[in-house]
Amino acid sequence: MRTVGVEEELLLVDPETGEPRALSAAVLARAEKNGADQDVFEKELHEQMLEFATHPQSSMESLRAEIVRCRTEAAQHAEEIGCTVAALATSPLPVSPAVGFGRRYQWMAEQYGIATREQLVMGCHVHVSVESDEEGVAVVDRLRPWLPVLRAISANSPFWQGKDTGYNSYRSRVWLRWPSAGPTEIFGSAERYHRLIADMVATGALLDDGMIYFDARLSQRYPTVELRVSDVCLHSGTAVLIATLVRGLVETAAREWRAGCEPLDHSVSLLRLADWQAARSGLEGELLHPATMRRMPAEAVVRALLDHVEEALDGTGDLARAGAACDELLREGNGAQVQRALMERTGSLRDVVTECVRRTQA
């Protein structure tokens, strides 16, 4: 059974006002003082962000427990220095992001200008184990058309600088400002994949291959495929659903590769349109069906994803729970829908953040 690990980026906010707080260094120092596992919590590009990474897990119940534990510990460390954490992919309230110290972050600020300074966005990255680079690249090639569906499910960033953007996932629009971000062409082999990355770094536009921000890529550090398409999810259960679906997609793609099935040959231009549609409407309207690239109701496309990975999920014992989680999500709404409903009910973005802080740790 393939192992799965999750990295979540959380927003540090004032517990009273809901405004972002640039206190990541202090939170990390407190976590170290409290004896936290040094492999769990990490700094990020901006001082208003805190990242944690789970250990690889085979069981989704174990993964769920670790995500909940990490969120709880992050909140405890933050509260000791006067802030708290919220699983929000953008800040609903206005913010002036503070770029972190360190040579890498300062290089990015100088190289990319305002794109770096405004890049206060929080994502959820999922790692799934693969047996080799060849298998990993074959998986990346076959995942491509399904990634916008994950975008729609995880969408949790409707507000930006105090205003409603009209998008379910505005984080994704900000993320695409990086020169290496977004969908990729079909690679066909690990050799072609690595050659492209070497050529991209050789241009000098990127500091190193750690700045390859493809929607799906081979991990630098681990024998995994890493998917970076999802917003950080408001509810831990949605994060587990995303991880479950990603593992199902990886296993399904690997089986297709071994069976000699060619990947769907959609152009990057079509994939970008599908991704835009998912970011814009989330689960509320229509999405582009991964096979046909034609509009269908979002619920039908989510069901198509479940059908696509049914055999893989059944093999890991996750099928029934994934189906139930999708039913609940389609009924209750993704994070963006929840945020907008809270705003409609309270009329206050501050109250939206306060409630999202509570749900983050629920």
UniProtKB/TrEMBL annotation:
One of its GO terms (molecular function) is ATP binding. InterPro entries: GCL_type2/YbdK_subfam, GCS2, Gln_synth/guanido_kin_cat_dom, YbdK. It comes from the Bacteria. One of its GO terms (biological process) is modified amino acid biosynthetic process. The keyword Glycosyltransferase does not apply. Signal peptide: none annotated. Keywords: ATP-binding, Ligase, Nucleotide-binding. The keyword Ligase applies. It catalyses: L-cysteine + L-glutamate + ATP = gamma-L-glutamyl-L-cysteine + ADP + phosphate + H(+). Its EC number is 6.3.2.2. Belongs to the glutamate--cysteine ligase type 2 family. YbdK subfamily. ATP-dependent carboxylate-amine ligase which exhibits weak glutamate--cysteine ligase activity. NCBIfam families: gshA_cyan_rel (TIGR02050), PRK13517.1-1 (NF010041). This is Putative glutamate--cysteine ligase 2.
